[in-house]
Write a structure and sequence with these properties.
Layout: E1 9-14, E2 19-24, H1 36-46, E3 53-58, H2 71-76
Parallel strand pairs: 2-3
Antiparallel strand pairs: 1-2
Length: 79
């Protein structure tokens, strides 16, 4: 299941200068990928042609919960 369908992306905006503003969270502050996932997300967005900069902000409010997942993610994970 991708991080968008998991409900981890709270906000994504692309301005007229092709700069990306992204707010995301993790399932918990103790998430085992807390160090690597935000870095991987930023690197993958930076790799998209035309993107100049990525400002990724890791946020904890509102706290993530299973209700933030898409219906397809819930089905795929049998929730």
């Amino acid at each position: 299941v991708n991080i968008y369908d998991l409900g981890l992306i709270y906000k994504m905006e692309i301005n007229n200068e092709d700069n990306v503003e992204l707010e995301m969270t993790l399932t918990s502050p103790n998430c085992p990928v807390a160090e690597s996932l935000p870095r991987m997300v930023k690197e993958n967005i930076n790799a998209i042609d035309g993107v100049k900069t990525v400002n990724l902000k890791l946020v904890w409010n509102p706290p993530w919960n299973k209700e933030m997942m898409s219906e397809s993610a819930k089905l795929e994970l049998n929730l």
